[in-house]
Amino acid sequence: MKTVLEYYDIFPKVLSTESKSVVTIRALGEHVAFEGAGKYRIKLVPMNDRLLHLQEHDCQMADVVYKDGALHFSCHLSGEQQYAVLLQKQEGEIWVLCCELRIYALHPDFFRLRPFRGDMHCHTCRSDGAEGPAIVAANYRKAGFDFLSVTDHGQYEPSLEAIRAYEAIPMSFRLFRGEEVHPPGNNSHTIHFGGDYSINDLFRKNPEQYEREVDFIEQELHIPPQVNTREYASLVWVYRKIREAGGMSVMAHPCWIQEEAYHISRTMYRYLLKTHPFDALELTCGQSLAENQLQVSLWQQMREEGCAVPVVGSSDSHGTVNSQWFGLSKMIVLAEKCEKDAIIAAVKERRVVVLEQYYNEEGPRVYGENRALEFVLFLLAEYMPLHDELCFEEGRLMKEYACGDREAGELLRQIGRRTEDLAEKYWA
Predict the structure, then answer these.
(1) Which tens digits make up the pLDDT trace of 137-175?
(2) Is the predicted pLDDT of residue 368 greater than 80, yes or no?
(3) CB 124 within 8 A of CB 160
(4) DSSP helix, strand, coil percent of the chain (3-state; round to 5)
(5) Whether pLDDT at 252 is above 60
(6) 3-108 and 114-411 share one CATH topology?
(7) Where are the domains of the chain?
(8) Over the chain, what is the mean pLDDT?
């Protein structure tokens, strides 16, 4: 957390360009308490329009009202961007900088959205992960996540187990159904997020029907000879079935080095990006920097060629305790609600910023559309640290509750929606 956020609280932090807002600055402790009326003013500096030698008249000035120990000012910020809020204090004939805070103005289409940190790809001990579904969910919340889909290999039930573990507790943290799909005779992995039933069960229970339907797809498609026709047809079958189930399909870790070779052939990866039969690409995940950068590089190259696909960031976590992969890759989704359909819509409309950060790195690498990315960078500095403090406490109580502590459950019922209240406070 930035030092200035430990000393001062400014709210709201996110304003609409369509209306006037009243902003409050509250001192957090007697060591930075305000002295009273008539000693302060606000200078608002637009970050995108700032010149090297910005003149006083180029900035919006705001009068300050002192009330109940806090400072209040009104403003109407018409441009969508970040603004520096320079709080100045009068000392004799000069104005001295007291602190520098930040706010952000958004046009209405983005102002109605909220940020949700999520992961659509993780594993538990029900397949090859380390911890049980309930503990995995608790540790994700503790790490600041707003939603999670457990996606064990070939298994749908563990995601339901995670949901059931906390279904009696009203919380902002959301758990969604999911699985990692491994169709017969196909090395490619697909994440199934949010659907109403298992896709793995379809081909397990009726393998003959699966083969017939893939045969039909293979016949109807016109695929270049250098592309493995059967593998591609099988993937198309998976993607279609996921949509029929009400879910979203994600192409998982295409450049994962599995033993001596890449998980998906380069030819297949390029053709999938070109034809886009899936819903989203897992751009980064819990793997080496080289593997992730290969995925990013080809995605960028294909965008230049006119083949732009939506992306997500997931961890592919196989453990949440002392794991180098847990939290390495994730995403922030800008959606109206933390609900399945809203999240899927946000992904498809490219309102997602992918975050990738390795151990001991100062900050994350970020990928996504520029408008969303610029706003998310503001949130990472100004909002998420406050959000994450609340999540840590909730996650700790979730784990205690999952281990049988009834008192923890009662405490969760009291505080489980605090992140929603926080968003209400910081959005004007």
Answers:
(1) 999 999 999 999 999 999 999 999 999 999 999 999 999
(2) yes
(3) no
(4) 35, 25, 35
(5) yes
(6) no
(7) 3-108, 114-411
(8) 95
Residue 259, exposed/middle/buried by CB under 10 A (0-12, 13-18, 19+)? exposed
Residue range 3-108 forms a domain whose CATH class is: mainly beta
- Which residue carries 């992904």 as its tokens? 347
Entry pTM: 0.96
Q: State residue 37's pLDDT score.
A: 75
> Angle at the Cα of 384 (from 381 to 390), degrees rounded to 5?
145
Question: Residue 165: which of 408, 393, 421, 327 has the closest Cα?
Answer: 408
pLDDT in tens, 80-103: 999 999 999 999 889 999 999 999
| Rg from Cα positions in the chain | 24
310-to-104, 282, 335 alpha-carbon distances in Å = 25, 9, 15
Strand partners, 248: 193
CATH class assigned to 114-411: alpha beta
The angle formed by the CA atoms of residues 111, 390 and 341, to the nearest 5 degrees, is 45
